[in-house]
Design goal:
Elements lengths: L12 H21 L4 H20 L3 E12 L2 E12 L3 E8 L5 E5 L7 E4 L8 E3 L19 H18 L3 E10 L2 E9 L4 E5 L6 H8 L3 H6 L15 E5 L5 E7 L5 E7 L5 E12 L17 H5 L2
Antiparallel strand pairs: 1-2, 1-13, 2-3, 3-4, 4-5, 5-6, 7-8, 8-11, 9-10, 11-12, 12-13
Length: 307
Amino acid sequence: MTRLLNRKRGLSPFFVALSLVAALCAGAAGAQALVESPSSQVERIDALLDQSFYAIAGVYDYQGTLLKRELFGDEIVEQKIAFKFSRPFKVYVKYIEPHEGREGIYVRGSNKNRLRAHRGSVPDVAVSLSPLGRVAMLDNHHPITSFGLERMLEIGAQNIRKAIERGDARLRLSDGGVVHGEPTWRIDIESQSGGRYVTVKRYEDLWELATRVGQDMYVILHHNDGIDSPTDVTPGQKVFVPDYYASRGQYFIGKRTFVMIKAKSWDHKGKLYESYEYPELELNPGLSDRDFDHRNKDYDFMIINQR
């Protein structure tokens, strides 16, 4: 059974959730009847995002399965990954398909902040990788340092709240149906596909440029066909930076947990850009340091080291 612990100070979580549920129930009916006013729709979406942040702040650790689909060129790469996550930031991943048996552990502040991993196939050897390096980022839109439910919520909320602030996108809140056994709310956003050109500074790669302009690195890379990698830029080069993370998005938030459990984004050409969902998710299972230790006998790191 899922356990959700609330540690954030302030109003009683029960009364916060109860009042929000009442507002959302009234709002969902209105949204489906298309008689909503834009202001009330925005207020309900903003309140739901607040409660989702409140809920995830009360989750100390979690484990489950992640299904992800990401666009690379014209190809969607699908992956199924078993994982464990614990605060302040510990991640264990094991690939189910493809790359069955591949494992990785990242513990912030440990192993020189490098990802410990092995490929799960011959020749198999345990290595330590830069989380932002080419090998670690292969077939990944996001580095291991951005793993997890909270980061998925942050990306979605940033996109939605930018639309609220700019007033140039359409937002809608509705019933999201049952997603992997969890009744959900669904937030839809359709935004403009504009952007601006930014000049690369001296000694700057796309990671640093993305941080400077407040946009995701891979979103920038994806929308610049002439750039092949984060380091494939030169000082003075003009780089297109989209205004929004996605031109269209769908975000599913659980009605019982208020945790975002599914997110889908489309790029500025209308193609599915990425999709993340959690068909199995256990909140606050009580993970220990052993779950993030490569010496754990349930993992295959030690088998490799003994060969």
